[in-house]
Amino acid sequence: MIDLRFVRENLDAVRSSQEARGADPSSADALFAADERRRGVVSEFEALRAAQKTMGQQVKKASKEERPALLESAKSLAAQVKDAEGAVTEAESELREAQGAVANIVLDGVPPGPEENFVTIETVGEVPQLDFEPKDHDELGADLGVFDIPRGAKVSGARFYFLTGIGARLEMALMNMAMTQAMASGFTPIIAPALVRPEAMEGTGFLGAHAEEVYHLERDDLYLVGTSEVALAGFHSGEIVDLSGGPLRYAGFSSCFRREAGSYGKDTKGVFRVHWFDKVEMFCYTTPDQAEAEHQRLLDWEKQFLTALELPFRVIDVAAGDLGSSAARKYDCEAWFPSQGRYRELTSASNCTTYQARRLNVRYRGEDGKPATAATLNGTLCAITRTIACLLDAHQQKDGSVHIPAALQPFLGGLEVIEPVGKP
What we know:
- The protein has 424 residues and is α+β, with helices and mostly antiparallel strands.
- It has two domains: 4-100, Helix Hairpins; 115-418, 2-Layer Sandwich (BirA Bifunctional Protein, domain 2), CATH 3.30.930.
- Helix content is 39%, strand content 21%.
- The strands form five sheets. Strands 1-11-12-13-16-10-9-4 form an eight-stranded mixed β-sheet. Strands 5-7-6 form a three-stranded antiparallel β-sheet.
- The radius of gyration is 27 Å and the shape is elongated.
């Protein structure tokens, strides 16, 4: 939720931010007008309430002769107060809707425009030159007994799967490797719920443009999360957190669910784009002045993890039109898939500044002791099935086996190579 004071004082900047995202800049003007209207009707309501209170005192002190006229006036004033209260409720609803239409303010330096306007910040590792025709991870996964997609579809439908044998072991190994790194970096591990209330989903910005991606259980009015970011953002909702010792950092593991609306026919093979997957997500609460530095740290931790997995990747500065409503800036790490001959997204790190915390009412005490809105950030450390897909693709060998990176081997009991099923 955008800061209304910022809108009042920097309307042109809000318009420019919306325009950079490819959104209608007039939504900034609509928000400004809705804020003005709400403040006006609140002022009128408070004036009428004050007059009503004064009238009440007058009625108490009035003589018998004066009282009938005063009571009649009080009755008329009460009706005006009721109407004014209704106007406040209506204006607050309109303001909330207008706020939902305005995304977070894009930070300076973010590439403007649509998705393809991203900027490559750096490339890490060398793209391998294979002397054989690489298989895609879908074929490798079946040959190696990593996953069973036909039976997943039989049981649950398209874009579902079973992780089997070494696939199940890879899931647990990657989770433990990610959590081990996160804890070494000062994160508190958390197993987060995959079902959340509407206020958590709305507070993190997932019921706006992304609403079609979300599974909703209407009978219980609960949502299946697409990332544990949602639950972790709500973890401290309505609280004043202690940031005197530095940022609060959580590494959340949860199952994640996405409808993948609009992706018909896209990435249908394998487990790269699925309806359900598990993920280790980093989530941080910090002060607004430290948010950019914390954002860089999140990116560095993601780079550390991908480097340990021996994956060549690039880091991109995501264009404004592809940020999502909550993020003011986002970095993606895209790893190389030899079978596709291109980089694909594995991790993201987003600086949401105060946008989420304002709606969720997460505050901290500044040096003056007064409560102020905190900043929140999130970063994917390991989206597990997508990472498995990349490991198979990037570490495949000519004989059909797959090399296990040295850093992952201890979490697999020292296993160095995944052999095709049935191979001695």
